[in-house]
Amino acid sequence: MIGTGVFLLISLLLSAYFAFAAIQGDFGHFRRVQIEADEAALKVQLADLHTERAILENKTRRLSDTYLDLDLLDERARKVLGMARGDEIIIR
Length: 92
Fold this sequence. Notes:
Elements (H helix, E strand, L loop, with lengths): L1 H23 L4 H34 L7 H12 L11
């Protein structure tokens, strides 16, 4: 009778431990939810980086030797050098 009670108690404690580990552990449910949230945030960040990369590729192409956008070249030179023509008004 005592042996059966001890066996039942040990079984119950082991079941409780494994249930706790399945929910709270390193590979548990809460950790999975956290990883999925991190994945979603990283996907958004990746989409933003793809957009930024496309913009930079477009600007690079527009300043290349094969295709030169003079307006973009003028804008970048003015911004980098901080210069303006005499007949321009600078608004800050």
